Amino acid sequence: MSMISEIKRIGGYPVNIRTIAAIFVGLIFIISGFTKAMDPLGLKEIFKDYFFAFELRKPAYALDDMMTWSHGTVSLVSGVLLSAIEFMIGLCLLLGVKIRYMSYFAFFFMVFFTPLTLFLAIYDPFSHCGCFGNAIILSNWETFIKNIIILIPAILIFINKKEYKSSFSCKWDWVIMISGFIFIIIFSYLRY
User: What is the pLDDT of residues 8-46, one digit of tens each?
Assistant: First the structure.
């Protein structure tokens, strides 16, 4: 009996390590995307901190000027898009929508952000990473440990991506994905 095999039935549905991993990572991504979307102006400031810390502020502000928008628009748009993508990935993992594809996004998000948070923990350019916007403040070291914990099930999901079956028809998969993405964009706009 493999570790990934069925371990229990809850309400008639098989539950296994893959399912638990998808639910866990999905919930974290949903919470992260939603809490960022709750405060788009705070998220804009967090992105400005990132642009400043990594000396990307000049290209970002130059892009703002080219678009004739006010300074910080690139930070705002980047933050809102990140929160919408995170929310969509989480929703898909939680509901079993296109997990084969979402496993790539979740895996690469974690592979990118885990070393980034290690850098933040070591060099401490600002006090917190903004993983949950300003709703839940974690130190840079707490964030790095959190990312290690999330990376493990994200790897499990990625390795076993072919084992997941979609919970809905292809049409409904797209409706759920796009609806989740648009919901967070509209929610952020209304909170702006």
Answer: 555 555 668 999 999 999 999 999 999 999 998 888 888
Please report, as a single letter, which amino acid is at residue 178: I
Nearest to 120 by CA among 110, 130, 109: 130
**Is residue 123 a part of any domain in this protein?**
yes
Within-domain flag for 4: no
Count the domains in the chain.
Answer: 1
Q: Contact, 118 vs 143, CB < 8 A? A: no
pLDDT of residue 57: 57
Report how far residue 11's alpha carbon sits from residue 94's, in angstroms, rounded to the nearest whole number: 17
Bridge-based pairing of strands 13-15 and 8-10 is antiparallel
Residue 38 in any domain: the answer is: yes
Range of the domain at 167: 13-185
For residue 6 the two structure tokens come to 């069925």
Return the amino acid letter for 37: A
Say if 5 falls within a structural domain: no
Q: Which distant-in-sequence residues (6+ apart) come within 8 Å of 190 by Cβ? A: none
pTM reported for the whole predicted model? 0.84
